[in-house]
């Protein structure tokens, strides 16, 4: 674990009033917290509508242990809410408060919070904030230079703005799901996880940083309207350009690239259950390097495999031969063996591989430990960037993991808003906080 930086991060002094939940919005503010911003995450008080990430397995314990499913179910609900591993990994370095935005007094408290922040973020359906009375103009009335960042599925503007969506929905609407899978006649496979939520988080953080830079230059805030579907379109690669220029629709090619010819080119099985290694051969010279690595079995000298053109014409047969050879090896050993012979290769890593065994990630301190009120020190993904003058860290300025539900109510309501203990107790009794 890398030592925690003592120097304030590049966003130190920026405060974000954060209404985001799930992945895309919470991922954006996670990045901003890592950069040193103070992120105040707002959640409904129990038994309100909890962030679903609080209800997702795996649950974490101190010391760590694996338990059968029934033992999770038997845990008190409040213990589950504060032990969800997914929530912990997407929200480290944030402060957490409870606030009922459906209660008039909750909206009054929110209106008092807004002037203390630099940014308001949310990823509800496009017009939810307006239903609460907090669209951009009302927020601007509370603080003229506020930056309001919306991260909805289809955007605030446009004929589809009223539709609700999640990451997988946006992936399908953007065309990404159709591009993923084996070639026809097989149907599209879609993506195995909601990657567009995570990518959308990076785009949301980038948009927020741009807005903060603009405000620093001009003194003016603004409304930033980001659509997840638009982010997906950015990820379709050359497909949009190909259709625009050539009138050619995208096509599924499985693991083989349609843009640069290579054979063999794919993901190949290794020893063990669900273990794989990728490799790519782009020229006849590289093919000879692969043949040397395989100790030149007889089938490599068949006419079908001698040249790149002939290998491209017989890729299925080539893959069958190659798969029979790769199955003899452990994935990392195969990767290292092929690389030693100049073959482009990389094992397909599992989570355990990345956390426990990847030397590159270990040297870059990509996994760090953060304290949690209930679970002690827990491992969490750190960050993908390194700053030479303003070090950053997943724990932000508070050097802490994800907050327990309402963990920072005293800090925000008592410290920032100046409420007395009696007032806070009254708000709690009324279900406001």
Automatic annotation (TrEMBL):
Keywords: Transferase. InterPro entries: CoA-transferase_III_domain (IPR050483), CoA-Trfase_fam_III (IPR003673), CoA-Trfase_III_dom3_sf (IPR044855), CoA-Trfase_III_dom_1_sf (IPR023606). It holds the Pfam family CoA_transf_3. The keyword Transferase applies. The keyword Disulfide bond does not apply. GO terms for molecular function: CoA-transferase activity. This is Carnitine dehydratase. It comes from Candidatus Entotheonella gemina.
């Amino acid at each position: 674990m890398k030592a925690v930086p003592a120097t304030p991060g590049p966003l130190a002094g920026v405060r974000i009033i954060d209404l985001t939940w799930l992945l895309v919005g919470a991922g954006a503010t996670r990045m901003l917290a890592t950069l040193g911003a103070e992120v105040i995450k707002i959640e409904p008080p129990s038994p309100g509508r909890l962030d679903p990430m609080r209800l997702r397995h795996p649950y974490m314990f101190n010391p760590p242990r694996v338990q059968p499913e029934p033992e999770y179910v038997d845990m008190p609900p409040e213990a589950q809410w504060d032990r969800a591993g997914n929530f912990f990994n997407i929200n480290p370095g944030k402060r957490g408060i409870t606030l009922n935005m459906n209660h008039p007094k909750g909206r009054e408290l929110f209106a008092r919070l807004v002037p203390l922040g630099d940014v308001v973020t949310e990823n509800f359906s496009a017009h939810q904030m307006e239903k609460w009375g907090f669209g951009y103009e009302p927020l601007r009335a509370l603080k003229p230079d506020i930056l309001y960042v919306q991260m909805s599925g289809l955007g605030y503007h446009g004929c589809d703005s009223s539709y609700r969506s999640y990451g997988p929905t946006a992936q399908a609407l953007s065309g990404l799901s159709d591009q993923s899978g084996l070639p026809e006649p097989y149907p599209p496979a879609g993506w195995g996880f909601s990657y567009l939520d995570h990518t959308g988080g990076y785009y949301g953080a980038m948009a927020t940083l741009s807005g903060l830079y603009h405000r620093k230059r001009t003194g003016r805030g603004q409304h930033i309207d980001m659509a997840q579907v638009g982010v997906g379109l950015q990820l379709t690669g050359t497909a949009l350009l190909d259709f625009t220029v050539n009138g050619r629709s995208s096509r599924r090619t499985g693991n083989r690239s349609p843009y640069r010819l290579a054979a063999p080119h794919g993901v190949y099985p290794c020893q063990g259950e669900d273990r794989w290694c990728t490799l790519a051969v782009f020229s006849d010279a590289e093919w000879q390097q692969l043949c040397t690595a395989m100790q030149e079995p007889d089938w490599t000298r068949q006419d079908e495999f001698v040249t790149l053109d002939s290998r491209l014409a017989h890729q299925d047969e080539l893959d069958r031969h190659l798969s029979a050879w790769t199955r003899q090896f452990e994935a990392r050993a195969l990767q290292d063996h092929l690389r030693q012979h100049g073959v482009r290769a990389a094992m397909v890593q599992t989570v355990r591989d990345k956390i426990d065994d990847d030397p590159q990630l270990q040297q870059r301190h990509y996994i760090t430990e953060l304290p949690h009120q209930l679970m002690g020190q827990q491992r969490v993904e750190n960050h993908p960037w390194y700053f030479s003058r303003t070090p950053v860290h997943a724990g932000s300025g508070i050097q802490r993991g994800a907050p327990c539900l309402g963990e920072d109510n005293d800090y925000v309501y008592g410290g920032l808003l100046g409420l007395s203990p009696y007032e806070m107790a009254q708000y709690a009794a009324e279900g406001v906080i």
